[in-house]
Amino acid sequence: MTTIKIFDTTLRDGEQSPGVNLNNLEKLEIAKQLERLGVDVMEAGFPASSQGDFDAVKKIADTISSSTVAALARANKHDIDRAWDAIKGAEKPRIHVFIATSPIHMQDKLKKTPEEVIDIAVNMVSYAKSKCDDIEFSAEDASRSELPFLADIIEKVITAGATVINLPDTVGYTTPKEYGAMFKYMKAHVKNIDQVDLSTHCHDDLGMALINSIAGVENGATQVEGTINGIGERAGNVALEEMAVTFEIRKDFYPFETNLILNEIKRTSDIISKLTGMVVPGNKSVVGRNAFAHESGIHQDGVLKNAQTYEIITPELVGVTSNSLVLGKHSGRHAFKDKIKQLGFSLDDDKTAVAFDQFKQLTDRKKEVTDDDLFVILMDVQTDIKARLQYQLKNFKVEYNSSTSPTATVSLITPGLNTIEGQGTGNGSVEALYNTIEELIEEEIQLTDFTLSSVGKGKDALAEVHVSMTVDSQPVSGRATAQDVLEASLNAFINAINRVFIIQVAEKE
Ligand code: KIV
Ligand code: ZN
């Protein structure tokens, strides 16, 4: 068995998914879980892109110890300096330098000749190497690059100090045969290729990211880059959980394994789905809600007789547990603290008190409090950043009947601590609430996406709402959970607006 290194880019390529906008505590929470999952490398972000990204990468680099922490940089000194400043505190830092190598990107985007691109790549890899031992070089759009040119630039950047060579299928265009052949070609034509790890990086535009990544591995790649739940630019990246579970389930066929702790997969998927607002489709391989559900009578009968008749992956393998009833109305602080630990959270005393309070409020309204409910409460409390300036909901009311439009009344406490109140209407109750807030506050708001889902099952399940919007042209997302759909909708909207204050404060500091 050859061990294939897993390079997770959920926090960088995944964060580039439309509508995804994580705060620093959310990024840190994801990073900690990726470490628990056992990823060999996590790409924490692109520090030159904003002060917020720099801060998040730095915080992650200073916290994570067992995984390598990588930061992305274009092939220029400024980006490399920012990347290094952000990750130099890491136990195992890596600078990831990239430049495009396909004719279309070099001519039309970079406006550089192939010779100029080679010069820049070599100079910038050696500049990065003067700071950090571990340097990954990515030839962006490698799958549409000319093979002899690609071999030439790769050989030169390895001589300049690159330790990992990544060959991305940036636009998700390649086929397994072509992608595999590219790796084979590099193995045969680049004389120093055995000094480095070769890496795949596949996007899923044609639904071939997994099979292309596997083709890369079969032809010499020893690192696979991807994201959890397959999130990422456009159609996303290869879903790492699918890769790892494929190698496990088909170890009779593939001589490869990964270091991932497979039973941490479900929890990782849940955390990422919740914090990014990118809901996992029910039929998604490995982690979808229906991945282990057997609906037809014939299948159910077969599974009862022998689970392996229709079940190739057991839920336990990826950490799916039954949603057990946990604590009730009379549970005390001690039991609550034990449960926090069991669910893998570590909250300080103040946050534990806030979470306990929310749990108690929930037990007044909900008969059964499940692990799923607690998970949401704990994750919300753990990742909540209170801006010094922010809007707070004081009260709201919605009135309607089947023959009139809903009318909402909302009162808010402003960042200046004044109370403002207004009324508005809309075609639906949520729209009425949102229209009212838009009229009440000075910020210019454009809602771009709204999703509502339930946490667990049953009439009394919690409602979870994610919104994406622009506030004064700044893209932000917000989320909230409540037992009432309207309350969750309103709080998600206010949460998104308040995130702008958090970003503004981070940028000033
Ligand atoms: O898809 C791509 O080419 C990338 C590079 C920056 C590695 O994400
Ligand atoms: Zn990518």
Question: Could you describe the 3D structure shown?
Answer:
Homodimer. Its EC number is 2.3.3.13. By secondary structure, this protein is α/β, with parallel strands linked by helices. It folds into 4 domains: 2-276, TIM Barrel; 294-321, no CATH class; 333-378; 386-508, Double Stranded RNA Binding Domain (2-Layer Sandwich). The protein is 40% helix and 20% strand. Helix 1 (24-37) packs parallel to helix 2 (51-63) and helix 1 (24-37) runs antiparallel to helix 10 (265-276). The longest helix is centred in the last third of the chain and has 24 residues, at 485-508. 44% of the residues are buried. The model has no long low-confidence stretch (mean pLDDT 93). Residues 13, 168, 170, 201, 203, 233 line the site of zinc ion.
